[in-house]
Amino acid sequence: MPSVRAVLFDFGGVFMESPFAAVRAFGARLGLDPGRALELIFGPYDRDTDHPWHRLERGEVSLLEARRAIMELGAPEHRVDLFEALGSLRDTTVREDVIALAREVRAGGVRTAIVTNNVREFGDGWRAMLPVGELFDAVVDSAHVGVRKPDPRIFRIALERLGGLAPKDAVFLDDFPGNVVAAERLGMRGILVGEDHRPALRWLRALLK
Ligand SMILES: [Mg+2]
User: Fold this and answer.
1) Each residue of 91-125: pLDDT tens digit?
2) Domains in the chain, start-ordered, CATH in brackets?
3) Which of 10, 53, 61, 133 has its CA 20 to 30 A from that of 70?
4) pLDDT on residue 140
5) What letter would DSSP give residue 120?
6) 130-141: average pLDDT
7) pLDDT band at 2, cuts 50/70/90?
8) d(CA 8, CA 174)
9) Do the beta carbons of residue 115 and residue 147 sit within 8 Å?
10) CA of 139 to the centre of ligand 1 (A)
């Protein structure tokens, strides 16, 4: 097996609780069908579409515009509020063991990047949760590059920023299966991070040996 030269980390669901879990819990509180809240808020997440959340992650609309458009999608009976759906994430804490592993990976001479589907308005918030400059050689934020996972171009941007590495040199961790599949299709090694994130960390350690 070729050696690993870079590790690319997703942010939400890897360094902190999964936004998908937060929205599922929100849907359950409203008594929505399983999956309905996810579909309303995040759209068909394994594809890149013009759903308002996808446009938000590509930096094409503001958070307030996306919130309004998502309310309209579910109207009248499922008028869901994005702010309420993501509200629990405000109190979430960062996973110190993931930070420690990222630090260790980089100290071992392996390049590191964050590849996050994110929201421009959340930029200061998530960056304040972890020592970004210390942990990563590159930060690729969908809202800034205008491309979101699972579009393979976002992985190519990350590999380019890490010094022009080949996909086979890199491992990618994400909590969303469609993103892991997209990375693997490009030739990267993918690790799916489950609700218990610790098995994924063990898997990464094993690949780095
Ligand atoms: Mg994620």
Assistant:
1) 888 999 999 999 999 999 999 999 999 999 999 99
2) 6-16+93-208 (3.40.50.1000), 19-90 (no CATH)
3) 10
4) 98
5) G
6) 97
7) low
8) 9
9) no
10) 15
pLDDT digits (tens, 9 = 90+) for 173-191: 999 999 999 999 999 999 9
Gap from CA of 15 to ligand 1 centroid (Å): 9
Picking from 86, 104, 5, 4, the residue whose alpha carbon sits closest to that of residue 42 is 86
Contact residues for 94 (Cβ-Cβ < 8 A; gap 6+) = 15, 16, 129, 130
Mean of pLDDT values over 185-206:
97
Summary mean pLDDT of the chain: 95
Cα of 116 vs centre of ligand 1, distance in Å, is 7
Give the chain's count of helices (H) and strands (E). 12, 5
- The CA 201 to ligand 1 mean position distance, Å, reads 15
* Interval between CA 45 and ligand 1 midpoint (Å): 11
> Ligand 1 center to residue 48 CA distance, Å?
15
In this structure, are residues 15 and 112 in contact, taking their beta carbons and an 8 Å threshold? no
Task: Phi first, then psi: give them for residue 47, nearest 5 degrees.
Answer: -125, 165
Residue 192: per-residue pLDDT: 98
Residue 94 burial (CB count, 10 A): 15
